[in-house]
Amino acid sequence: HVQLVESGGGLVQPGGSLRLSCAASGYIHSSYCMGWFRQAPGKEREGVASIYADGTGTYYADSVKGRFTMSKDNDRKAVHLLMNSLKPEDTAVYYCATGFLGGSWPVVDFGYWGQGTQVTVS
To answer: What secondary structure letter does DSSP report for 17?
Structure first.
């Protein structure tokens, strides 16, 4: 059983920064990729960033490319999302997820999800 717990959300002014973290517990397979998603009120959930199982590859949505950086601890137990130059449109609940590749990278079958952390840019 895998548990994911996000932290680090909060209120920040436009142009500011936040660092989200996701702590994983339980059986974390060495081939699990991890990702960050977000969902704003009235909008569909969207993928923000993903990181390959061994941390050698990352994928970013166009909307955050150049502003967000995803990283992974060597022990596979935590990932982080450094968010710089935040904009009001980044306001959303941010979710961490993990799972196996669903085919070719960056397609991932995310089977486990955290409860989310609120990020408000205002």
So the answer is: -
